UniProtKB/TrEMBL annotation:
Organism per entry: Neolamprologus brichardi (Fairy cichlid)
Lineage per the UniProt record: Eukaryota, Metazoa, Chordata, Craniata, Vertebrata
GO biological process, one term: regulation of translation
Name of the protein this chain belongs to: Eukaryotic translation initiation factor 4eb
Tagged with keyword Cytoplasm: yes
Similarity-based family: Belongs to the eukaryotic initiation factor 4E family.
Amino acid sequence: MATAEPETNPSPSQPDEDGAEQTGQEIVSPEAYIKHPLQNRWSLWFFKNDKSKTWQANLRLISKFDTVEDFWA
């Protein structure tokens, strides 16, 4: 699997044309923002065990996701 390494400015302490120092911020390629889709949409549920309620009333939706990035977020 390929990973994208952030590019850094090679000389962050060098002043630019108007004399101000550069901040050394990382430049990230647009490929780092591409989401990786899953084949299916997934849902995580929690079952609250309350015997006075029905099975459906005890289910609580935690999260839905369809990309790897949404799962880990």
